[in-house]
Amino acid sequence: TFIMPIYNFSAGPAVLPKEVLQQAAAEMLDWQGSGMSVMEMSHRGKEFMSILAAAQHDFRELFAVPDNYKLLFMQGGAIAENAIVPLNLLGRGGRAQPATSDYINTGSWSTKSLKEARRYGNVNVAASSEDSHFAQIPERDSWQLSKDPAYVHLCTNETIDGVEYQFTPDVAAETNNAPLVADMSSHILSRVVDVSKYGVIYGGAQKNIGPAGLTLVVVREDLLGHALPACPSAFNWKIVADNDSMYNTPPTYAIYIAGLVFQWLKQQGGVAAMEQRNIAKATLLYDYLDSSDFYRTKIASNCRSRMNVPFFLADDALNDAFLSGAKERGLLQLKGHKSVGGMRASIYNAMPLEGVQALVAYLQEFEKQRG
Ligand code: PLP
Predict the structure, then answer these.
(1) Which residues carry this modification: N6-(pyridoxal phosphate)lysine (predicted)?
(2) Domain 7-17+270-370 belongs to what architecture?
(3) CA–centroid distance, residue 283 to ligand 1 (Å)
(4) Is the ipTM of this complex over 0.85?
(5) Whole-number average pLDDT of the chain
(6) SS3 call for 201
């Protein structure tokens, strides 16, 4: 009998490779003969410590993290990091309080980040594409950076709006070497990143890495130890680093699943190989959308996200029919974010090329029927 493949185009949380879910299911009750589920293990016991060490090692290798950066496994998600970033960096360089930080506003997530930062200091919105409904990334030449901000923050992939930086901005010269801080939640490990260009990279795990509950932070060592006195200990990067991410009980099961995803990614050839696949997937989808008048995308072609592809039917009245037809064909969760409308296809690492091919075939079929 033919079993229809299911392709999940959800923006998150967590779309994971089938092989990883199968392995997790197989060892759910008894991890490698230990007689325990990973959930039941002491986080300081040798079994979990080996899981943690492997996950840290594999992430550092996959993401090519230089030796002078710490990798932290935290909790609270990227939204908590929106506060944790200013709490850890506004004290940098002995700045008088409230210090200033610069933000580039390219969509819903960077807007959230800068609003949170206003609770702790002055925020200079150095550039914003809000006037163009976040359909592009403001040209680097137009950024009005501060002379000496505590840091410069950006969101390198806007999950809701569908814009992604296709360049790494250099801000050092104008900002007295302010560190670049990036929210990479929704495209981390989907493409090769030169970590050395950033001071801090953070992200919730629940797109390309694993289940919600784990937050990754990669921070350059010289940026540790500048936290404001009010910074909670569990959110103080230096304390977390000094305790090897074990200051508080870490999200052990989420770390374990993330570790399985890292192993899977290595089997796939690593991040560079994954990036080539992600380019192929995104190109296939955008090329079809561009070739058709029945569907539209609103994002400038030089900053389209390879991970999150918002698109619209020319006739909104067909949205429900489109979605129910998609579901019948095993193409799930294509409805767009409520703030943007239309459709959104999220095509993270775990989405195979076949899934995008199935989506494009359905786009064609639906257009033929209704166009
Ligand atoms: N930043 C980006 C780019 C996101 O896609 C998300 C979505 O989950 C968040 C921040 C919020 O992360 P969390 O819900 O893990 O706090």
Answers:
(1) 207
(2) Alpha-Beta Complex (3.90)
(3) 25
(4) yes
(5) 96
(6) strand
